[in-house]
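From the methods appendix. Each design record in this collection lists the tokenized structure first, followed by the designed amino acid sequence. Records were kept in a plain field format so they could be parsed without special tools. The example shown here is representative of the layout used throughout.

RECORD:
FOLD TOKENS (495 positions):
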């Protein structure tokens, strides 16, 4: 695995209002850290020991200490009511994702000297954060005992990783979107607003770099890796050396062009001239890089690869990018789904792409040619796809997008890939999302989303929702598959 995924170390800083016993915050912080390390990895957190923050001077001391300790995320812990000015200044001056949580009272037997009033203090903290325009993650119910708060911090980790990752991400793209794929085009201004850098290149630059890698001494080792991965599915062995050459080209480009950024994602070109000039299609290489931690989108889908990166970080797993592609035939639904799974026909659809899904996310895989392209091109220049049915199981379908008017919006939907043979080609699966038909019409179509959607394996909607909120997507612009009986604003009330 290439080191292209962020890690976080969360500095826990306890705060105290000076008219409350400092010991409340000290003891509660110690209990929180003990609860976390019993249940989770102690390397995730750092307990700031230099002070309990009661003043601006303490805030500076704590800030310097957690920076010195290498913390790139912050947890402000209200052990009691807390000093709203100092604690929010700490968040303001900390350069990284931050969260606020508060201590619950422990027992009915100590509600005089042992009462901390952090439930009250959280209100003032949230108000002051808004006054200072400081973004912070506040859990759904941010008050709890040591074990509760340990769980909250653990839930913050994928959110913090994604936010930190975006602030250190460079997207490398090659070429303009193919003709008639304007849907994958989007304003890049929002990338800069998110803290993401972008380097846009010509595919001619990429072709030059590819040619310079001809005969690279590392090619045989990559070919061997590919042969081992494909096994009996290696149906196009003659193309592996070129694919290995291309993989090395992209990896070397990433290292040469990473610049000051820690993480990279790629929006790649794959047609219309790519096949005839390179002599293959890059789908399999895209799948391999994505599995190695460098998400690659097809068809120069910049917001697609951005979405893939976020999903990879949040899920800590390989993701894929698919077309929300075609309906499930009624006879397939009747034979393989109806009565066996609790989905209507309109809840189902097929997610497909040419062959960019990692082999680990396919039930079986074969190296083949790209059937759609081969309808108008010689088959030999369309070799390089990885085909197979996508593994059954829970998925999250999602996308972050900048609209034509340069606004951020997103969607998230939980569903699953059904264990139903697709009887088709490409990397493809039969998907089911509750109320998909309505979601398709009133979120995807109404929202002007392109046909590409990112797929994370497992249900990760909770964390993705918090990431999108944190980075500035208006809550009303985060679409989801609403349950039956809950009407979309654009939905006809008479059906």
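DESIGN:
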């Amino acid at each position: 695995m290439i080191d292209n995924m962020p890690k976080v170390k969360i500095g826990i800083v306890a705060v105290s209002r000076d008219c409350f016993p400092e010991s409340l915050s000290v003891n509660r912080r110690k209990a929180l850290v003990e609860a976390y390390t019993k249940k989770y990895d102690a390397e995730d957190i750092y307990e700031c020991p230099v002070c309990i923050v009661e003043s601006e001077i303490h805030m500076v001391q704590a800030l310097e200490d957690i920076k010195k300790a290498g913390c790139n995320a912050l947890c402000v812990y209200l052990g009691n009511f807390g000093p709203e000015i100092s604690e929010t200044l700490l968040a303001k001056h900390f350069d990284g994702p931050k969260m606020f949580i508060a201590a619950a009272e422990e027992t009915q037997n100590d509600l005089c000297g042992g009462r901390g009033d952090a439930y009250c203090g959280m209100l003032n903290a949230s108000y002051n954060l808004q006054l200072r325009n400081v973004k912070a993650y506040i859990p759904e119910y941010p008050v709890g005992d040591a074990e509760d708060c340990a769980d909250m911090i653990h839930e913050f980790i994928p959110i913090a990783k994604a936010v930190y990752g975006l602030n250190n991400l460079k997207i490398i793209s090659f070429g303009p979107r193919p003709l008639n794929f304007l849907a994958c085009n989007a304003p890049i201004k929002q990338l800069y607003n998110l803290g993401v850098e972008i380097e846009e290149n010509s595919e001619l630059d990429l072709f030059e770099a590819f040619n310079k890698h001809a005969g690279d001494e590392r090619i045989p080792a990559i070919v061997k890796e590919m042969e081992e991965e494909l096994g009996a599915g290696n149906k196009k062995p003659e193309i592996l050396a070129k694919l290995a050459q291309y993989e090395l080209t992209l990896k070397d480009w990433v290292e040469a062009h990473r610049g000051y950024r820690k993480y990279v994602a790629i929006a790649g070109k794959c047609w219309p001239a790519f096949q005839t000039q390179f002599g293959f299609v890059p789908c399999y290489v895209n799948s391999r890089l994505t599995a190695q931690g460098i998400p690659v989108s097809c068809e120069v889908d910049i917001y697609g690869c951005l979405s893939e990166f976020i999903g990879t970080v949040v899920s800590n797993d390989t993701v894929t990018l698919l077309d929300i592609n075609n309906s499930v035939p009624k006879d397939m639904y009747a034979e393989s789904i109806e009565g066996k799974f609790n989905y209507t026909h309109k809840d189902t659809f097929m997610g497909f792409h040419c062959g960019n899904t990692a082999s680990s996310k396919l039930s079986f895989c074969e190296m083949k040619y790209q059937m759609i392209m081969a309808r108008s091109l010689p088959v030999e220049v369309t070799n390089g796809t990885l085909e197979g049915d996508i593994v059954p199981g829970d998925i999250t379908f999602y996308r972050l997008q900048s609209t034509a008017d340069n606004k951020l919006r997103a969607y998230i939907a939980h569903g699953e890939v059904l264990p139903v043979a697709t009887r088709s080609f490409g990397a493809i699966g039969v998907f089911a999302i509750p109320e998909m038909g309505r979601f398709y019409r009133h979120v995807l179509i109404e929202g002007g989303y392109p046909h590409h959607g990112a797929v994370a394996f497992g249900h990760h909607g909770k964390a993705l929702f918090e990431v999108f909120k944190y980075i500035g997507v208006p809550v009303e612009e985060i679409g989801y598959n609403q349950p039956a009986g809950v009407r979309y604003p654009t939905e006809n009330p008479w059906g």
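APPENDIX NOTE: Residues 169-480 form one domain.
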